[in-house]
TrEMBL record:
UniProt organism field: Flavobacterium circumlabens
Transmembrane segments annotated in the record for this chain: none
Name this protein carries in UniProt: ATP-binding protein
One term of GO molecular function: ATP binding
InterPro entries linked to this entry: AAA+_ATPase, DNAC/IstB-like, IstB, IstB_ATP-bd, P-loop_NTPase
Biological classification of the source: Bacteria, Pseudomonadati, Bacteroidota, Flavobacteriia, Flavobacteriales
Length: 246
């Protein structure tokens, strides 16, 4: 009968419950009351589904690498506002539809912090997508050619949080300006966006390169945005210097 019960649980995709039930069968020394057993099975199924959901959200986000809030370096030379970063861990900025702007020179950890925030958002059940912004523009250009542009834009719009990394490495042409404007307009006041850039916000007008559109985009991005401005030398350079010479 127990084998049949386990098989039915698997057929119903109650994987967490089936593993928990199998554990109780193997551990004969554990003596549950009926109420305790039901609670144990339900909690096991709930935890299993939550873990699979988080794993699915992380895979869908397509982060470039793993990064966690606990690993952020708060060395004073970096100028990281520890209180602000700790508050971001609760992801209230997503509930409040706020943006985050992360600026700093090459290698100071902009992408790491942006990704760590994204990972935390996934763990809290939010839909997140990470993009290298230049690769995103190339993808959208191809989407226009094959007729899937609207589908791609709608997919971006539905995300609770998107991360646009490496903004400002190249000046925007008219097509990229229009794409960025559409993305930001769709999300303005509805969803949150993190933008990581080597350039200070004051230089973004030059990157967008068209005054009217630049004003419109930046008004929507910068308004009510939280800022993380990183200082110091490259973290990658520091890491290499610390490696022992063989």
């Amino acid at each position: 009968m127990n084998d049949q019960t386990l098989e039915k649980m698997k057929q119903l995709r109650l994987y967490g419950m089936s593993r928990a039930f199998n554990t109780t069968l193997e551990a004969s020394s554990i003596d549950y009351t009926n109420d305790e057993l039901i609670a144990y099975l339900i909690n096991s199924e709930y935890d299993d589904r939550e873990n699979r959901k988080v794993e699915r959200l992380i895979n869908t986000a397509k982060f470039r690498y793993k990064a966690f809030m606990e690993e952020i370096d708060f060395d004073s030379s970096r100028g990281v506002d520890k209180n602000l970063v700790n508050r971001l861990e609760f992801c209230d900025f997503i509930k409040n539809k706020q943006n985050i702007l992360v600026c700093g020179s090459t290698g100071v950890g902009k992408s790491f912090i942006a990704t760590a925030i994204g990972y935390k958002a996934c763990m809290m059940g939010y839909k997140v997508m990470y993009f290298n912004i230049n690769k995103l523009f190339s993808k959208l250009k191809m989407a226009k050619a094959d007729g899937s542009y609207i589908k791609e834009i709608n997919k971006i719009e539905k995300q609770d949080l998107i991360i646009l990394d490496d903004f400002g490495l190249q000046s925007l042409d008219n097509f990229k300006r229009q794409d960025l404007m559409e993305i930001i307009e769709d999300r303005h006041g509805k969803k949150s966006t993190i933008i990581a850039s080597q350039l200070p916000v004051e230089s973004w007008h030059e990157v967008i390169a068209e005054q009217t559109i630049a004003d419109a985009i930046l008004d929507r991005i910068v308004h009510n945005a939280l800022r993380i401005e990183l200082k110091g030398e490259s973290m990658r350079k520091k890491k290499i210097e610390k490696q022992p010479i063989e």
